[in-house]
Amino acid sequence: MIMSRDNTAETTIENVSSYMHELGVQARFASTALAKIDTGIKNHALNAIADAILANREQLLAANEQDLNAGQANGLAAPLLDRLELTEQRIAAMADGARQIAALPDPVGEINQLIKRPSGLQIGRMRVPLGVIGIIYESRPNVTLDAAALCLKSGNATILRGGSEAIHSNRAIATCIQKGLAEAGLPAQAVQLVGTTDREAVSVLLGMHATVDVIIPRGGKGLIERISRDARVPVIKHLDGICHVYIDEFADLDKAVNVAVNAKTYRYGICGAMETLLVSAEVASKVLPRLADRFREEKVELRGCDQTKKILPQIAEATEEDWATEYLAPILSIKVVDTLDAAMTHISIYGSQHTDCIVTENMSAARAFMQQVDSSSVMVNTPTCFADGYEYGLGAEIGISTDKLHVRGPVGLEGLTTQKYIVISEGVTR
Amino acid sequence: MIMSRDNTAETTIENVSSYMHELGVQARFASTALAKIDTGIKNHALNAIADAILANREQLLAANEQDLNAGQANGLAAPLLDRLELTEQRIAAMADGARQIAALPDPVGEINQLIKRPSGLQIGRMRVPLGVIGIIYESRPNVTLDAAALCLKSGNATILRGGSEAIHSNRAIATCIQKGLAEAGLPAQAVQLVGTTDREAVSVLLGMHATVDVIIPRGGKGLIERISRDARVPVIKHLDGICHVYIDEFADLDKAVNVAVNAKTYRYGICGAMETLLVSAEVASKVLPRLADRFREEKVELRGCDQTKKILPQIAEATEEDWATEYLAPILSIKVVDTLDAAMTHISIYGSQHTDCIVTENMSAARAFMQQVDSSSVMVNTPTCFADGYEYGLGAEIGISTDKLHVRGPVGLEGLTTQKYIVISEGVTR
Fold it and tell me: What's the mean pLDDT in B165-181?
């Protein structure tokens, strides 16, 4: 059996590759133990982790201050420092999150149905953990707890590799996680924080297909593209959200205005924020001036196509680049289209298959849009900012998958599991 | 719009890379059309393809003879020549297969449930095609039709790259597929056979992540490992089947003998064939002599561990290598184990996560085995040779996935689809 190593403390690691492979083997052993553990024990661990987080508030804030000071000294940009910061409130939210995950139903072990085949076989599918999940993320320390809690509840062992800027905060959080695991009698290797900030650790992790079942990167597009390119382990990706709202000729224009404004302004920085508004030529002259008023109040900069500019001459012209840009900012591009098909074609060319919405009262248009737009969420009369695991009733999410295989859209506990066939008979033969 | 190219004829392709990318773009366009087509039209095409296959029997046999002659001239081994051969019977079976797929329920468009959230959102998941599927296979020409039919029924466009030994047969089959597509008014690019035997075509295909959603390799382990290593496009893999039957101390020994013999002898060459038999020490002296008699009749060579050889001294000794070997032949390794845990540990070390069975009358042992053995199919009192899409009621299968993500075990129509979220409301805002 392999000796455990304390990954919460400062250690000097000489051989990063063998260190990482050791973590992988330990995680694999832990995953075998986790797969057969009762829900009650997992929930006990999650609640004990929440307790430890609250009880160790001071230590967490002190460790975080070390990271913040180092960040300031290294000239980290203000938004990054904000993401890095832990406050009393954020610590409380982390603990709450763990308790909420404890309260969710456990997907593991679920068998939907057992069908009976003419041969006498009873066949069903049982939901089981994926096994070992690697999480690679940037400077938000709360991801350490969120990801560990979701993976633990779904019966997976986790290897966490956070950004080096957050290393002290992450170690302090990992110490709390270890306390909770120990209290519930779960193996320490169920959640392992990579104990080195050496970048080689990431490269090694990406190739550990013998021990790691899937890697979930959380962070900017650059990180995710790099990981997807280099990984030999399957990756659940969350790329950009160039989300569209299309106001159809049969739209209720009051709804259209509300949906479009909310989709843009609810929060500019989320991946579900609308980036391009498409408007049917039939209603453009009626709805665009109303929208322009509302967006002016909200201080959203508008950029329009030629036809839009005929109706709203005061706004800037949208370029080809605008259609392909995820602003994540109070900027909106607007295009007038002649038909539903033209709207869908625009989405298929410039969209990112994340979330797109049609505003319409026409059943056929709604059905065509839902069927034909190839995005992880297709919406009718609903702002795209609703694309979120909590809103969808998943209870929590580890990200929003823009992949098509395995899981699409917000990823909750079910997305961290797989199904295996179970086959039972009384000794039938072929 | 892109011009169509006749891929069923002999062509000289100068720039393989741009040729392949053109196929990809054509497939992507065709997939958009296929995604919205009614089931009836797809079924019409499948039945018309079956008709064309039967009507063009002579042409198929003539084309196949060209391949067989070339194969013999190139010294192709006898089993490969057998796989390559089309007979009247095999042609009839291909046509039957297409008709059976036409008769299966269409998974596309299915919405399981629409839940209502407190916010007023109605949320559900709609089953949709993956998009474009690349199939890379070896010398069996019937795969051309099987794969095309399954992908077509599930609404996907297909790029088929068969082995060069079967190129004339594959072209003749592709001609029949084109006739069927045309008769149903479907785009010719819904099914495209790669028109060159240049190996570069495979390398290019493996990198076409912008237009191809998934690649499914069908063939030997070498082919599949090579493709998995090199692909930038997601791959649904079917690696080896080192399948186990474990005879528990609480087994009904009559069932145990029948299950073990059937699991080995039903067909030696299938991936679900048992390769290692594990026997509880409690029952080994009772059941092993009975098994040895039966396997002697069936001319299966036995190789045993030390404890097995104490009971069956006449058999050869199993080496470490035996436990890790997929024989696909009338050879069986046998190991006596002390406990259920020891059996499961052996399976976790040497198994290939394909299909494993426990023979037991004990409910707790059966449940522990089903829960803890991490294989795509776990069976109770059922021969492993039942691991098959037809037996599971999928109607047809494109392979057996040994992956954990997306789809595990036999892959039918559902495995060739994905789910997207649909979200409907009356203009609610956050």
Answer: 97
